Amino acid sequence: KDLNLKSLFKLVQVWAWERFRDIRPEAREISKGEPRIAQWSCLNQRDKNNEKKSLSFDDFDWRPYTKPLENWNPPRFYLEEAMWMTVDDDLDDEFLSFARCVRSSQLVGIGFVEGYYPNRVAMQFGFSQDLPGLVSDHSSFTEKEAWE
């Protein structure tokens, strides 16, 4: 049966190529300043008949973005080994920006406040995921209360 997908499936394909070495094509070298995803531009899947038998747990790369590439440096906060850090005035802008993105918070819109919990999906992006804890329901906050 044919499958009809209406989405940007290329991102799913790149996710798989980054993590499963046995099914990915040979990545191209990226030019200085290009994003990491450019290494997969204009490439084709390997032999499609070989996909199912070549997927193996041992060949899965859990943190592909920590690996160096020619002309690309991973962000300094994305390390192979986890470490504890305190978010304070001593951190540079790159770390502070990252800390703001991964912190649970309230997103304030026009007339509503929504919870933002990136920690719930951290493993999907190669990060260690927190154990679930008690999360207060702040959906009844006003915009002013959420900003405080």
Automatic annotation (TrEMBL):
This is Aminotransferase-like plant mobile domain-containing protein. It comes from the Eukaryota. Residues 3-145 form the Aminotransferase-like plant mobile domain. GO terms for biological process: meristem maintenance. It holds the Pfam family PMD. The lineage of its organism: Eukaryota, Viridiplantae, Streptophyta, Embryophyta, Tracheophyta. InterPro entries: AminoTfrase-like_pln_mobile (IPR019557), MAIN-like (IPR044824).
